[in-house]
Amino acid sequence: MKIIFHFQLILALFVMVLNPFLLSGCQPGTGNSRSFVNIGKFTVKKLPENCKELKDGAGRTLILVPRGEMPPEGYDRHQIIEVPVRRVVAYSGYHVGMLKAIGVLDEVLVGVTKEKEYWAIPEVLKGMEKGRVTYIGESDAIDYERLKSIHPDLILTWDLSVIPMIKELDIPVVITSTGVAMDLDTRMRFAQFLAFFFNREREAKKFVSRVSTAIDHIRYITASVKDRPKVIWGDIYEKRVLVEPGNAWAAEMVDLAGGEYLFDDVSGAS
Known about the structure:
Structural class: alpha/beta
CATH class: Alpha Beta
Shape: globular
Distance between the termini: 24 Å
Strand order of the largest sheet: 1-2-3-4-5
Number of strands: 14
Largest sheet: 5 strands, mixed
Oligomer: single chain
CATH architecture: 3-Layer(aba) Sandwich
């Protein structure tokens, strides 16, 4: 079977969604923002005072507390995260892209799991050259002593297995992967979930609006395509090939770009 990729449209979507260039308690909240936000498996709930209760991709409960304020009672210290977060370790390029999308990358990134040669994002390269951003080892071989030495406020990771070790280091961690593959809407709107850690909700909303408009435009352009090439999206390893299921954001991107995803009838995790 001949497999053809519409590289230009798929790459455009890929860049926009994955790598965007793109008190004795908390004080009463202000404004008219919604008290509950649902972004796929990620949720944000406003507490009666100016704190927030979040659920990450693994369903773990986290509490965001303004710096200098007392956290609400009933939560373990490992659940408490002071905001705005100032120092972040990011496990993937997707995390780095989302930090850039909400306008905090240059301010908060202190650690990554890829060496300098991997990166093309100027803020990361400059940060590594100046010693502000540290390579802490590959995601499957983290140097925990080095991780501890850079004093992160928060770790963004897809890897559930690191939670026990990071918990011993007393560093808050957010699981950014989910049991079921993220759809395109969740993948894009994750920026809005992440924004709550940095008080950048306005910037995230603008990013999502901009990307949504671009996606709608691409959908309009490709709606009349009749000859749709068959496409597979996955990773090739030494002894196996892992493909994205039909319910994943990658499959939606193929469809948007005018292709026909071969595993469209398969549902599962990424």
